[in-house]
Write a structure and sequence with these properties.
- By secondary structure, the chain is α/β, with parallel strands linked by helices.
- The protein has one domain (4-208, 262-271): 3-Layer(aba) Sandwich (Rossmann fold).
- 47% of the residues lie in helices and 18% in strands.
- It is built from nine helices and seven strands.
- The protein has a seven-stranded mixed sheet, with helices on both faces.
- Strand 1, helix 4 and strand 2 form a beta-alpha-beta unit.
- The termini are far apart.
Amino acid sequence: MQYDPIKRSLGKVFNLHPLLRALFYRLLDLLLLRSWYLRRELRQWQLSAPADARILDAGSGFGQYVWRLARMGEDFQVTGVDVKKEQVADCNAWFARAGLAARVHFRVQELEVLHDEERYDLVLSVDVMEHIEADEKVMQNLCRALKPGGLLLISTPSDQGGSDTRHHHQEGPTGFIDEHVRDGYNRDDIREKLLSAGFSEVEVAYTYGRPGSLAWKLSMKFPILMLNASKVFFIVLPFYYLLAWPIACCLNYADLRQTHASGTGLLVKARR
């Protein structure tokens, strides 16, 4: 299934007014379990972060995490990079209206040819690596872009069924989200790739255990399937979430509080 058309449709709706865009970011923070995990890690990182930290969001998309990071420190300098020109232009325009243009900038950039060196204290990569064939090259580039001691945070599907994937030898799309180039990462494989890329310390933990996987189906998979079937479901969606969200919220909280022996997601912390 193609996920990007749904994201573009939602983006148009929430771009109708600046306050709607900020509301959109808050809703994503509530709905997406990966955001729950990342917020926890970012709060921990902030405790020892320099006051004028430089941050890179490698694959910034709608700018959800750039928005959060820019508001975490009044002197933080945040750069968002993405391959989609229209999305980069949209984010630059909106963050300028939000009064953050002096500290936040977006640019069109392929991570395979990122040439920044020892520039950032933190690099964020959220649901990006599974879209990139040359992932080892990108990991090397992100390592080089970090200052010594800098931190890379990655959220990506695991090979335990991330995004409801099927194996590539089967005919047709490989899973719920067709844009992925791999079914997901093996925990040991991504650790070895990052160590080979130059990182000195790598921690990999499963996310989206049983509670989180069920929450993802309730809060993301089923609504997206409905919207793919018909745009009429945009009208139904608020009523659906009134029923589904309290359940998904409890499941997200349960997932965050557990240590998982297996899960459909991975949270990776790599230190240069």
